[in-house]
Amino acid sequence: MPATSQTIWNKGRVVGKKPPLTPDQVALIRLLLRQERDLRSLALFNTALDTSFRGSDLVRLRVSDVATLSGVREIVEIRQKKTEARHARPVQARLSAGTRDSLRAYLVASERPLHGWLFTGQGTRWSHNHLSESQLWRLFKSWLEKARIDPSLYGLHSLRRTFPTHIYQQTGNLRAAQLLLGHASIESTKEYIGTEQAEALEIARKYHL
């Protein structure tokens, strides 16, 4: 029988979990955004990393979630939008001094009201709407391209995974990673950040046939 032509669903795609950013990649993207004086992108990038919020929660942050009339908060608390998390306890995140500085500079320059969206779309049409997840992805992709990092290897979950993965790698504290991600179970966190796979690869590096 003649061979039939079929489209391979994963042709040209990276299959599996998208990896977190490395500390060197984070430092490079921050440097480039500072050099460009892109206050909005720097504040958004830093907030995404520190909070480890899902994209759907990150884009819906209001100014009042991160700031008061007296200044930028150190602790941010939200209820996750995801359906199964609606009845869970609020998720907290700590904003580092560097992130608070970038948010402060961004808020002063943008003059956003406390009740308004923290991050909005660009241009007149989008200026009163919160940033969409597709717009967030396009921004993240542009940051990766500036840093000469292949965007096809990463996704928005890469931003979410970065800080909890770093915490786990440095401390071995999976419970801390679970709390940062707002997961209901430790097994979900192990699966999400791929701890077992990472540990297996680390062991493999130490042994040779």
From TrEMBL:
<feature type="domain" description="Tyr recombinase">
    <location>
        <begin position="16"/>
        <end position="205"/>
    </location>
</feature>
<dbReference type="InterPro" id="IPR011010">
    <property type="entry name" value="DNA_brk_join_enz"/>
</dbReference>
<keyword id="KW-0229">DNA integration</keyword>
<dbReference type="Pfam" id="PF00589">
    <property type="entry name" value="Phage_integrase"/>
</dbReference>
<dbReference type="InterPro" id="IPR050090">
    <property type="entry name" value="Tyrosine_recombinase_XerCD"/>
</dbReference>
<protein>
    <submittedName>
        <fullName>Tyrosine-type recombinase/integrase</fullName>
    </submittedName>
</protein>
<keyword id="KW-0233">DNA recombination</keyword>
<dbReference type="InterPro" id="IPR013762">
    <property type="entry name" value="Integrase-like_cat_sf"/>
</dbReference>
<dbReference type="InterPro" id="IPR002104">
    <property type="entry name" value="Integrase_catalytic"/>
</dbReference>
